[in-house]
TrEMBL record:
Residue stretches making up the GH84 domain: 1-150
One Pfam family here: NAGidase
Native source species: Polioptila caerulea
Coiled coil: none
Protein name: OGA GlcNAcase
Tree of life domain: Eukaryota
InterPro entries noted in UniProt: GH (IPR017853), Glycosyl_Hydrolase_84 (IPR051822), O-GlcNAcase_cat (IPR011496)
GO biological process, alphabetically ordered: glycoprotein metabolic process
Alphabetical list of Gene3D superfamilies matching this protein: Glycosidases
GO molecular function term, any single one: beta-N-acetylglucosaminidase activity
Length: 204
């Protein structure tokens, strides 16, 4: 029926989206959802070009970055993805995901994400560790990063997100930029306080 997988997927997604009354949040995960899955690159992928052309503009497209689990996210890469998809991506961030190796638990601060990244995003989803309690530091430091981005924003754009001025990671927290190490230290203090509070609860 369809000349390509991308056209089939876009057609079905568009039909479901319209049948549901075009909800404000409707996410589509493409088959090529990171740079390493694109051939030869995101900007030259026939699949992504078709998705960008055919998918209705109100549908958000999920992207994980250069890889399925991306150590870094750059504004340059996201600009390339935005151009081919004709919309800013929704980042599905697998930085802390451990479902592929449950012997490991990731407890470091949220890092490797370029300052000013929010201007290039339609949204951001964090895929956490499978172990609930282990996600205190990931979520806490993500919140600190997010506040630093909001604190340096220029003005809201049409999609409701904030445009963010570019900041240097090496600058101190006093000027509003994000420091992963300082965010980790604050998260650890709050986590210890939370653990101590739980220890005092009846039955603990």
């Amino acid at each position: 029926v369809f000349p390509s997988l991308a056209q089939a997927q876009a057609s079905v997604a568009n039909e479901v989206y319209q049948e549901l009354g075009q909800p404000s949040v409707f996410l589509f995960c493409p088959t090529e959802y990171c740079s390493s899955l694109c051939s030869p690159s995101p900007s030259q992928s026939c699949y992504l070009q078709t998705i960008g052309q055919e998918l209705l503009p109100g549908i958000g497209v999920i992207w994980t970055g250069p890889k399925v689990v991306s150590q870094e996210l750059s504004a340059v890469l996201l600009e390339e993805v935005e151009a081919v998809l004709r919309r800013r991506p929704v980042i599905w961030d697998n930085l802390y995901a451990n479902d592929y190796d449950c012997r490991r638990v990731f407890l470091g601060p949220y890092m490797g994400r370029a300052p000013g990244l929010m201007a290039r995003l339609h949204g951001l989803l964090l895929n956490p560790n499978c172990e609930l309690q282990a996600n205190f530091i990931p979520i806490h430091t993500l919140g600190t990063w997010f506040r630093s981005e909001l604190g340096s924003c220029a003005h809201p754009d049409h999609a409701g997100m904030e445009e963010v001025a570019a900041l240097g990671d090496s600058q101190g927290a006093q000027d509003g930029s994000y420091s992963p190490q300082e965010a980790l230290e604050v998260a650890l203090r709050d986590w210890v306080a939370e653990i101590n509070q739980q220890a005092l609860e009846p039955g603990r």
